[in-house]
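Tokenise the fold.
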Amino acid sequence: MKPSDLTDDLKPFFFKDGQYLDPLIISVTGHRDIGLDAELPLRSALSDLLNELFKQESKKSPKRPIVFLNGMATGADQLVAAAVNEARVAFAPDFITQIAVFPMPEEDYVQDFSLPETRREFENALDCMDAKIALPLTQENQALRNQGEKIHRTGQYVLLAEFLANSCNNLIALWDGQNIDKPKPGSTSDVVARYLWIDLTKRASIKEALEPYCNQERNFIINHLQGSVFTVYTPRDRIFGERQILKPIGEIDKITIPKHIQKSIVKKMDHIETNVKNWYKQGLHFQCAGCGGCCTGAPGYVWLTDEEEKQIADFLNLSLDEFEKTYTRMVYGLRRSLKEIPQSNYDCVFFNSETKQCSIYDVRPAQCRTWPFWDSLLESQNAWDEASKTCPGCNQGPLIPFEEIEIRRKKISV
């Protein structure tokens, strides 16, 4: 199957008959500047690693899909893409998928491959992929784009590092093991550091993109903690200075998060969940003030499920295709959000600024219906208090019982 941005082409890798398949997700990271003399031993090491990994998984969970997330950069990323493509032939190829993850819109990313040779290598690696995802611009870069200025590429590579580190169960890193204590933002060492020191409060992950279909947060994190970093020693081909060979090229180390740290993170999750259920146990007051504040403001997302898209399209007497092209945008290549109007304070496309009303109110998405009872706003008393500063309906009107809040909160994770 050729790479595609369409969500329908990505769903089969994660779902079957509407059920989440809980794939083994493996992210790939590594240095761009690999010397030619290192490629052969690295290919041999990768072949051994992948064959052993596929063999173990085929015995343990023969029908569990394996999904590789690959940033597609020159050097290590493209080397792994070819190695996975070659190794999966001997196993169950239908259950082994490669997804390209561009750190920015594709038209921006391909500028990194301006030379004919690098463009050819990029296209060859892309041929190994089954699908692709393009990460959106950061808020800062979107503002620069709207002003007609150049985007800051480092910010996009930091977003990619966070995505790769926090979207996988296991990580394959082709690197020299340097700078783990002070990683350069968006670098290979940054990806490894983010994976090993997971922050439960800051994640941009494929799990979030899949949220309309499943709520796997606890299982996702537990699987992540049980995973490992497979480091394949890869010296860098320095232009200046003598290259240091610290270990045999291709030597594989396995780093796993220590059990005591895993237990402490799980305990922290329990504590967070307990607090979420306790602090608003007596219920909360809320009554919509009709101000439209939740429909405007800083850039964000209003997520849509397939059913909601169809309902809104029918309401507008449009085909599903016409509705998607006119009123939605694709995020992560997996999930649709309603469009916003940058020239008008990022208003939702269906917000009427004159009447301060929603033009599709009767069929508005669950995210709108459940405001302000979102996970992010119910995380703590402080989070709720911050929301109340901009939403005049919070702490006003009738008391909403705890049970009703929980029903709304569980409809969608925001």
About this structure: The first strand starts at residue 15 and ends at 16. The CA atoms of residues 135 and 332 lie 5 Å apart. Confidence is low (pLDDT under 50) at residues 1-6. The chain has two domains: 7-269, 284-409.
